[in-house]
Amino acid sequence: MKYPLAKPFFSAECRKRIAENMDQVLESGNLMFGEYAKSFEARFAELAGTSYAVSLNTGTTALTIALKYFDVSDKEVLVPSGSFVTDVSAVYFAGGVPVLVDMNPETLSFDLEDLKRKISPRTAGLIWVHLTGIISNQYADIISLARDNGLFVLEDASHAHGSTIDGKRAGSFGDVGVFSFYPTKTLTSGTGGMLTTDDECLKQFAEEMRIFGKSSDSASIDKLGNDWFMDEIRACVGYNQLLEADAQIGHRTLIAGVYRKNLSNQLGIFVLDKAPNSEPSYYQYAIFLDGRVDGPALRKTLSDQHGIQAKTIYRATHQETVFKDLDDGTLKQTEETLDCSLCLPLHMAISVEDAEAISKIVADEVRAQLST
Ligand SMILES: Cc1ncc(COP(=O)(O)O)c(C=O)c1O
């Protein structure tokens, strides 16, 4: 594929540092809770604007630990259906009951009316996802709705490393933030996750859960944990990649700007406005196709004829086989928005010229479809 959708990037300098640092790690014989995990956490807490960051083996682990901390057992947790499936899986892993909420197509976040409607006496909290890296400009309403109803707010910022709105950082709005370093993510450690919070008790809980539930005071096992920590090898990769976060996010912002400029006034294509007070970090750049456009056919043409890999943001969670019983018929905006979404290649190896060429091809192919 000439233009893959996502591609992890390590600059030559970054690779050199990793090689040198990795040698130290291997030589030290210490693969747990060493210098790199600590440095990664300290620097990541700065990126998220929180007092603490706890490194973990995956983002799904971060979700699960946070949900266990809030003791969601047999309680309802509001989750967007328009997100990655493990937001729902983690609720089950923690013993809770997921209740799916519809999407606002303009923010790619919660539809506020549906969110309000689905709060019940059994609701413990909500998982608020910054899909594609955009923080909803309705954030104040989402947080106050949660606060007014005594609900915890768990931000899933897996797509939003370094995103801001009104100067506030993704991962610092709610009670807890979670991040993924899965290989396609803006910053990656191979696989990995991070939990961010200002709550010292939650930080300690996560630190204990990630090492079999061993209490930090008594060294006895007093809770059901697992080996959920991030080892030094991945922490070394993640830390070195984090040092280049500004360059990576800057490049993604530049490329997203090219797509937005070129595709905002094209037949059959809609783009989301960027709120002037927001700086998404652009994990993905999604455009939206007019209902008359055949999305699957367009993706096939882009791939087969032009080497452009493109996909929808996700399939709605309630349309995945394992979660079909969560479809209560109220999630239509999620289905429609995701079905007509088209994520374009966005990573460090996509140049401005590539983005110009891709925009032109996409616009031409959409126009060609509509004129036949
Ligand atoms: C929004 C979102 N939440 C959670 C996850 C799960 O993270 P991980 O794969 O690190 O477990 C991912 C990605 O993989 C994601 O995109």
Walkthrough of the structure:
There is one protein chain. By secondary structure, this protein is α/β, with parallel strands linked by helices. It has two domains: 12-242, Type I PLP-dependent aspartate aminotransferase-like (Major domain) (Aspartate Aminotransferase, domain 2, 3-Layer(aba) Sandwich); 245-370, Aspartate Aminotransferase, domain 1 (Alpha-Beta Complex). It is 39% helix and 16% strand. A seven-stranded mixed beta sheet has the order 1-11-10-7-6-2-3. A hairpin with a 2-residue loop joins strand 8 (164-165) and strand 9 (168-169). The protein is globular, with a radius of gyration of 21 Å. The mean pLDDT is 97. The site of pyridoxal-5'-phosphate has 15 residues, from helix 3 and helix 4.
State the main characteristics.
single chain, 372 residues, alpha/beta, Aspartate Aminotransferase, domain 2, Aspartate Aminotransferase, domain 1, seven-stranded mixed sheet, three-stranded antiparallel sheet, 12 helices, globular, binds pyridoxal-5'-phosphate
